[in-house]
Write a structure and sequence with these properties.
Elements: H1 10-18, H2 22-27, E1 31-34, H3 38-44, H4 53-64, H5 73-89, E2 95-102, E3 105-117, E4 127-134, H6 147-162, E5 167-173, H7 179-187, E6 191-192, E7 210-216, H8 225-231, H9 259-278, H10 285-297, H11 308-326, H12 347-357, H13 370-374, H14 378-398
Parallel strand pairs: 4-5
Antiparallel strand pairs: 1-2, 2-3, 3-4, 5-7, 6-7
Length: 399
């Protein structure tokens, strides 16, 4: 909600959409976006919803079916009830519910989103896109309309910009595993934000089960939001590291279910856990040395990036490059045994140094095998000579 009332009421949404170009209206023709108070008549009263928990429980089942496996039913039920109570009483958690219906039939709802102002504890005035779900919902018999999720993201961003907000914020349930959502949000200008990927903002971030993403609405790329939606392209934010191979479906890395895609997701999670540990406030002295050397290896200066969180984000971007192009994650403690700090060498040289510092493969007993490989095969030759000697000895004894 804004200080003047609901930010995502039907009236507020319609005021914003009335300013859109005719091409946008044609793009989303047949879809209707509804908030409070109209949701009382169109949906809640029709389904007998009041302040009874049992009624909300039955209604939330309809919503739950559209959200896949990344959100649990209790979480959705709680969000729906709080949205209902917030508007009904003008107090509480400032949650707002928006639903998408078939323009000609209110019985067919196609998606919904919940926006909560203040869900991020560091940014109480930012309306956070708490839940967004679309799919085969109540009354739908045909295939899911892929325009619905795009319509909701478009409405969310346009209403924020129209009301003077300079940031959009959300959490990706399932983080990198939820690749479809992650890539759709990137297409609409959201980027991972390590500054907010902590329990200081979202309470669930500590378990690394979600991924915080923000949209800088002051970026010039958002001036062309309508064009990117119409042309189904990604918003160009003018960032040098904008490309993400996991979202490129022309490659094996970007095709869900493929081995390389699953490996890439595993490596992303591994890098994130590693960087999270190195930047933890209670990190050990060894981890602090490891963090400092890792920053030096990649010319990441905390003073330049203002905060440790931004340095954290920069290292995650470096890790993304390593996993795709050099097929390994950020190095673990072995980086302390590596070559001297990077003195003016190129990032590519730095990556080569890091590659050499990655821990060696392990055998079945967990012992490194690099020592055996580094002696030119001498160990293997000695073993073969001993075996030949034992065989000769056995032959002599038989004679």
């Amino acid at each position: 909600m804004s200080k003047y009332g609901p930010l995502f009421s039907t009236e507020s949404i319609q005021d914003t959409l009335d300013k859109c170009s005719p091409r946008i209206k044609r793009r989303f023709k047949g879809l209707k976006c509804v908030g409070f108070p109209d949701l009382y008549d169109i949906f809640f009263e029709k389904h007998g919803v009041n302040d009874s928990d049992d009624i909300f429980e039955s209604v939330s089942e309809m919503f739950y079916k559209s959200c896949g496996s990344y959100l649990n039913k209790d979480y959705i039920t709680s969000a729906l009830k709080e949205s209902y109570d917030s508007y009904d009483s003008y107090y509480g958690d400032d949650q707002e519910l928006v639903m998408i219906f078939d323009e000609k039939d209110d019985d067919h709802f196609k998606g919904f989103m919940v926006i909560e102002t203040g869900e991020c504890r560091k940014l109480f005035d930012v309306p956070v896109l708490k839940i967004i779900c679309s799919g085969k919902l109540h009354g739908d018999t045909g295939p899911p309309d892929r325009r619905v999720s795009r319509y909701m993201l478009y409405v969310y961003l346009k209403v924020l910009m129209d009301n003077g907000h300079d940031m959009g914020l959300l959490e990706v349930a399932g983080a990198y595993d939820n690749t479809a959502a992650f890539c759709l949000y990137k297409k609409f200008g959201f980027r991972g934000n390590a500054d907010l990927d902590t329990t200081d903002c979202f309470t669930q971030s500590n378990a690394l089960g979600t991924l915080a993403m923000s949209a800088d609405l002051t970026n010039d790329g958002f001036k062309y939001l309508d064009e990117t939606v119409i042309n189904e392209t990604a918003i160009d934010l003018g960032l040098g590291y904008d490309f993400d191979p996991m979202c490129d479906k022309t490659t094996t890395v970007g095709k869900p279910g493929r081995g390389e895609n699953e490996t890439e997701k595993y490596k992303r999670h591994a890098n994130r856990r590693y960087v999270e540990r190195l930047f933890h406030p209670n990190r050990s002295s060894v981890e602090e040395k490891e963090r400092q050397l890792l920053l030096e290896r990649h010319d990441v200066d905390p003073a330049i990036y203002n905060t440790l969180a931004k340095s954290n984000q920069e290292l995650l971007e470096v890790g993304k490059h390593l996993t795709v192009h050099l097929k390994h994650t950020l190095p673990k403690k072995q980086v302390l045994k590596g070559t001297p700090p990077n003195n003016g060498s190129s990032p590519t040289d730095s990556n080569r140094n890091l590659k050499s510092a990655v821990s060696s493969p392990t055998d079945s007993k967990g012992k490194g095998t690099s020592a055996k490989k580094s002696n030119g095969g001498g160990g293997k030759r000695r073993t073969r000579r001993r075996r030949r000697t034992r065989r000769r000895t056995r032959r002599r004894k038989r004679r």
